[in-house]
Amino acid sequence: MTDEIQATEMTDGFHLVIDALKHNDIDTIFGLVGIPITDLARLAQAEGMRFIGFRHEQHAGNAAAIAGYMTQKPGICLTVSAPGFLNGLTALANATTNCFPMILISGSSEREIVDLQQGDYEEMDQLNAAKPYAKASYRINKAEDIGIGIARAIRAAVSGRPGGVYLDLPAQLLGQSLDAERGRKSLVKVVDPVPRQLPAPDSVQRALDLLKIAKRPLILLGKGAAYAQADADIRAFVEQSGIPYLPMSMAKGLLPDTHAQSASAARSFVLAEADVVVLIGARLNWLLSHGKGKTWGKPKQFIQIDISPTEIDSNVAIAAPLIGDIGSCVSALLAGIQSGFTKPSDEWTGAIAERKDKNLTKMAATLAHDPSPMNFHSALRAIRDVLKTRPDINVVNEGANTLDYARSIIDMYEPRKRFDSGTWGIMGIGMGYAIGAAVTSGLPVVAIEGDSAFGFSGMELETICRYELPVCTIVFNNNGVYRGTDVNPTGGKDVAPTVFVKNARYDKMIEAFGGIGYHVTTPQEMTKALQEAIASGKPTLINAVIDETAGTESGRLTNLNPQSKAAKK
Predict the structure, then answer these.
(1) Is the pTM higher than 0.70?
(2) By CB distance 3.0 to 4.6 Å, which of 29, 106, 216, 263 could disulfide with 85?
(3) Domain-by-domain residue ranges, the chain?
(4) How far is residue 86's CA from residue 82's CA, in Å, rounded to a whole number?
């Protein structure tokens, strides 16, 4: 006999959070450390998780969001309380709007202090602040609830229509102790977080019946179709039906942009002339003129595939709603066209081909010009020709003119390789998306940035260099927002609101952090620099000098930018 008492093995909130994430096969955290989550990041790294530290929480959140889009698992963003949480909230709201699965985890003040407004360090009611911008919001108060809390957050982020989830961790929670065995038993492995949702047979038949009588059918692919990873069935449905298709920007590459059935080069024509449109993972929001107006021309009927019943009839009447997951719905349509389905007439496909050839010929002539200094077209032609040889490369794209022109000039050949401003059309996603894509895929990233858009997240060049990521950032430098030619009408010392420092050398920024910078003024120099940058596998930046007169106000969104009479004078 002995009087020695064996000590009970203990764990705490820090370790349980990490264990719960690892238990659900989550191995990477994007974030920025500080009170009260610094030790959580240290311990996560010590436990074999990868922690990617950023210079601003918004960009860490954007990285987590794009990782979620690429993997169908929620990307994790970890922030400090109050201001750090608010920085991450922008990315969370963007993830929710774009249907990217992401979990924003933030440390916070204790509930009893917040409720009495007693003035704690960075005191803020974060849970209620997050609710309007997240798909779901949760707070964990007891260590024994960490397992179930993280399980709920994961399921909420990925099930049904994916989105952003906020998870609030009060500082006191992380230090709570718990018997280790009890802690292990409290962990929850999420089983079947994204169950198939089969469409009703009668809704499938209704859609097929409508397709069979269509004279000018069109398939419209949204980024939801790319997210679904039902690539083989989507391609088979397009090819076996013979229906022309139009991809939205982040759906480019589901089928190669050079595919014979792609109607991208005749976009305005097919939207106006089609009589039946099949929406696969696309919403009739502002990007599609809400399904009405001059853009849509002749009357048409819609078949809409969506997992959310409330999305149906959101802008116009939907003749044949198909409610279910995209993979199951497309599979059902594919089975239904195996027999007795007539492909679209040569009259329709021939008219599209004629319009495509005309527009492509016109674009080829424009791209063939070699002005000095470069314009958007000549610079993007050089980029296009290099990227054509590397279809595996991830492409990030943002800006006004830089986004608009690149979307139509840079062809994509593989799915989930193009990441851009998305549903909100926001600027500032560039470096976050680039880092998230590089970390998640392990493949090179080329970020094609307007100089204004780059400014939102440019400090993350240091993050790219710190982690030695194979990211090549191309800054289209035309000295300002839209263009650098505006002048102060008063003749005063201040420059016009849209003008930046003339002839800025963005390439010197990355050199300051140990990366490789290039300064290019011709398409030939662009080609050489991009080839070298990709081959190096190192952090690089190309400062591409663009004619400052080449841009247009708001890119192609002038209809959304009403100007006052005074501004027009």
Answers:
(1) yes
(2) 106
(3) 10-186, 201-350, 369-565
(4) 6
Structure tokens that stand for 96 in this block = 């929710």
Please tell me the CATH code under which domain 201-350 is placed. Answer: 3.40.50.1220
Chain centroid offset of residue 380 CA? 21
* β partners of residue 177: 12
CATH says 369-565 is which class?
A: alpha beta
To which H or E segment does residue 165 belong? strand 164-170
**Superfamily, domain 10-186:** Thiamin diphosphate (ThDP)-binding fold, Pyr/PP domains (3.40.50.970)
- pLDDT by position in tens, the chain (length 569): 444 445 689 999 999 999 999 999 999 999 999 988 999 999 999 999 999 999 999 999 999 999 999 999 999 999 999 999 999 999 999 999 999 999 999 999 888 888 888 888 888 999 999 999 999 999 999 999 999 999 999 999 999 999 999 999 999 999 999 999 999 999 999 999 999 999 999 999 999 999 999 999 999 999 999 999 999 999 999 999 999 999 999 999 999 999 999 999 999 999 999 999 999 999 999 999 999 999 999 899 999 999 999 999 999 999 999 999 999 999 999 999 998 899 999 999 999 999 999 999 999 999 999 999 999 999 999 999 999 999 999 999 999 999 999 999 999 999 999 999 999 999 999 999 999 999 999 999 999 999 999 999 999 999 999 999 999 999 999 999 998 999 999 999 999 999 999 999 999 999 999 999 999 999 999 999 999 999 999 999 999 999 999 988 876 666 666 654 444 44
Structure tokens at 180: 């280790």
Q: How many residues does the chain have?
A: 569
